[in-house]
Design a protein that fits this description.
The complex is a heterodimer.
Chain A (H helix, E strand, L loop, with lengths): L3 E4 L2 E4 L5 E7 L5 E8 L3 E10 L2 E4 L7 E2 L9 E3 L8 E8 L13 E2 L3 E5 L1
Parallel strand pairs in A: 2-11
Antiparallel strand pairs in A: 1-3, 3-8, 4-5, 4-9, 5-6, 7-8, 9-10, 9-11
Chain B lengths: L3 E3 L3 E5 L4 E3 L1 E3 L7 E6 L5 E7 L5 E3 L5 E5 L4 E6 L8 E7 L8 E2 L3 E6 L1
Parallel strand pairs in B: 2-12
Antiparallel strand pairs in B: 1-4, 3-9, 5-6, 5-10, 7-8, 8-9, 10-11, 10-12
Chain lengths: ~120, ~110
């Protein structure tokens, strides 16, 4: 089944303890992106990647890192999590290098990862 | 900054009545526009997209949206609501910075029996 898989789905952690949220897609998609969803704010883009070894900042990159060493994986790294990073996180991918922002391709979303930082 | 505004945070309708979810965007040109739906505890799913072809766009599950450049709007409609339509809906714009998408704040649709 074609899908975007995120892990963990739920995580409670403490301030300062490094964590990684993994994202993997099995559709050979070029483009991948991370979003965070907070009540009343919709989804905000954290980072995106147009291809392997190519990443760029979205609207709220502070406190996050990403890497794209292989096409299928795009992990989100929180080096020193803080309570304001408590949120619901979504990974998404689309087929082409043509950005989904231009409507050429549809984003496929993962099921989400709910992170709580105490 | 480019933005997307969903004019209602909550919309409540009765089953079988029309649905209208409102979205306005800011832009000096015609962007790509999308509507996504999120059912409880699920990821987002594309309903429909506008990419400068026909201004009236038809999507899945009977939804449609009309692009009105003069009003900078892209409202989502459905003639008759179904209980399964209860979800949160997001208006999304693209076409600005390479690779970026901007989401609206979301509208929660409640459908009463």
């Amino acid at each position: 089944e074609a899908q975007v898989t995120q892990n963990p789905r739920y995580l409670i952690t403490v301030t300062g303890k490094k964590l990684t949220v993994t994202c993997s897609q099995n559709m050979n998609h070029e483009y991948m992106s991370w979003y965070r969803q907070d009540p009343g704010l919709g989804l905000r883009q954290i980072y995106y990647s147009m291809n392997v070894e190519v990443t760029d900042k979205g609207d709220v990159p502070e406190g996050y890192k990403v890497s794209r060493k292989e096409k299928r994986n795009f992990p989100l790294i929180l080096e020193s999590p803080s309570p304001n990073q408590t949120s619901l996180y979504f990974c998404a991918s689309s087929l082409s290098r043509v950005p989904p922002s231009f409507g050429a391709n549809v984003l496929t979303f993962g099921a989400g990862s709910r992170l709580t930082v105490l | 900054a480019q933005s997307v505004t969903q004019l209602d945070s909550h919309v409540s309708v009765s089953e079988g009545t029309p649905v209208l979810l409102r979205c306005n965007y800011s832009s000096s040109y015609s962007p790509s526009l999308f509507w996504y739906v999120q059912h409880p505890n699920k990821g987002l799913q594309l309903l429909l997209k506008y990419t400068s072809a026909a201004t009236l766009v038809k999507g899945i599950n009977g939804f449609e949206a009309e692009f009105k450049k003069s009003e900078t709007s892209f409202h989502l409609t459905k003639p008759s609501a179904h209980m399964s339509d209860a979800a949160e809906y997001f208006c999304v714009r693209g076409g600005t910075s390479y690779g970026k998408l901007t989401f609206g704040q979301g509208t929660i649709l409640t459908v009463h029996p």
